[in-house]
Amino acid sequence: MSQFDLTGKVAIITGSSRGIGKAIAEEMAEHGAKVVISSRKQAPCDEVAADINGKYGEGTAISVPANISSKEELQNLVDATRKAFGRVDILVCNAASNPYYGPMAGMEDDQFRKILDNNIVSNHWLIQMVAPEMRERREGSIILVSSIGGLRGSAEIGAYCISKAADLQLARNLAKEFGPDNVRVNCIAPGLVRTDFARALWEDPEREKAASRGMPLGRIGEPHELAGAAVYLASPAASFMTGQTIIVDGGATC
């Protein structure tokens, strides 16, 4: 059996109707996992789940929409997963928001709170909902999709970077807490990737060219190029890895 085999595992992936989350869900299904597709809107979630079921067999994926700002909807996401599949083995906290672009001096309080709530507090909620069963079974993998923004400052997306730095520390703290029960908590820190979330940073060819110029690989990333890191962290191949961050950025931070 491959170290990367996820057969029999059940994964919740937030923000998985498109972009990086969708790519992670597809790749985990490819490696044998049952996957739960979740984002705010029902129709896009249904479409991704149907595509995965068509490729890997009916019952491989289910669709459970949830707004990450709602603790009740996140609890329903977890409850619906347990009802369908009986357990949660893998949690990928991928969904995030960034409603403000510009210097922090111009940010409204509600915008700052939304970033912190959606990018940090919602992850905390979900983890607290799934961790007890993982700890009881003495097995589980929690993956936070952070960002290289959490490793350096920014004059345009400062609050987002703050939230992503907090996710790195959340993983370290929980790795210490959960490690004795063999539950691992890690982060992935993407660089600039061609997603709708980052569209403002790449849809203008000149901006994309400028961004690519600072990368050793000379280009921005594609969503599928993040999926392998998530499969690794979820699989037995990463059984001795916790509290860490995998940077996948085309070399931008080197």
Describe the overall structure.
With 254 residues, the chain is an alpha/beta fold. The protein has a single domain, classed as NAD(P)-binding Rossmann-like Domain (Rossmann fold), CATH 3.40.50.720. The protein has helices spanning 19-30, 42-56, 71-85, 109-137, 158-178, 199-202, 205-213, 224-234, and strands at residues 10-14, 34-38, 61-63, 90-93, 140-145, 183-190, 245-248. Strands 3-2-1-4-5-6-7 form a 7-stranded parallel beta sheet, with helices on both faces. The longest helix is centred in the middle third of the chain and has 29 residues, at 109-137.
Secondary structure blueprint with pairings:
Blueprint: E1 10-14, H1 19-30, E2 34-38, H2 42-56, E3 61-63, H3 71-85, E4 90-93, H4 109-137, E5 140-145, H5 158-178, E6 183-190, H6 199-202, H7 205-213, H8 224-234, E7 245-248
Parallel strand pairs: 1-2, 1-4, 2-3, 4-5, 5-6, 6-7
